[in-house]
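Researcher: We plan to redesign the surface later, but first we want a full-length starting point. Tokens attached.
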């Protein structure tokens, strides 16, 4: 699996927030977006996820570097600032909806209870989502990624509202995804504990700086 972003540019209102953003991630790769609030991190993630139209450039995935390319959105999970769960539905009803909506893809995901176990919250999927604490809600939002297989995970501040133990749990799930050939792109204000992750520092209305995270 390869994810290739070429010469991306995007606007916020009338202004270009970034231009000429390019990167190439292979199976097992990770890219961490850093920078101040408003620097374009979330905008770039939404462009990769297909939620915003790029002003210029393209972002695609392929099974080989020179193989047929398709939009990255078709192979991606997106976890944004909001959890995208209905508060009046139970956890199980929310997760079952996402499993059905996302579809099985090439490999089936976990069952509802398996996903709950994976995020450290077994036995409470019968509860309304709105009844849970902010940290529990965020864990179950992450569980959506486990319900149907998608090789690219796009994560916007994935550890928001989480304690240190949950941070470690999420880092473990992300590293497992990478070991199985998955790709991760994440925006964060703090290290996620990912090994050999590249960094793209967003500046906002000026450009980017590239390096290695950690």
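Model: Full-length starting sequence:
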């Amino acid at each position: 699996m390869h994810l290739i972003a070429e010469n991306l540019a995007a606007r916020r209102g009338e202004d270009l927030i970034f231009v000429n953003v390019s990167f190439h991630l292979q199976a097992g790769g990770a890219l961490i977006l850093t920078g101040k609030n408003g620097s374009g991190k979330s905008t770039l993630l939404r462009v990769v996820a297909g939620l915003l139209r790029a002003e210029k450039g393209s972002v695609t995935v392929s099974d080989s570097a020179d193989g047929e390319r398709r939009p990255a959105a078709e192979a991606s999970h997106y976890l944004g600032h909001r959890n995208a769960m209905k508060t009046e539905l139970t956890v199980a009803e929310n997760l079952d909806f996402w499993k059905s909506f996302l579809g099985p893809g090439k490999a089936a995901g976990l069952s509802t209870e398996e996903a709950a176990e994976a995020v450290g919250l077994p036995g409470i999927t019968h509860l309304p989502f709105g009844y849970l604490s902010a940290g529990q809600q965020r864990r179950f939002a992450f569980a959506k990624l486990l319900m149907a297989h998608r090789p690219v995970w796009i994560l916007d501040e994935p550890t928001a509202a989480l304690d240190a133990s949950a941070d470690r749990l999420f880092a473990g799930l992300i590293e497992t995804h990478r070991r199985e050939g998955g790709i991760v792109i994440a925006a964060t204000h703090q290290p996620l504990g990912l090994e050999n992750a590249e960094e793209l520092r967003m500046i906002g209305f000026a450009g980017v700086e590239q390096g290695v995270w950690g």
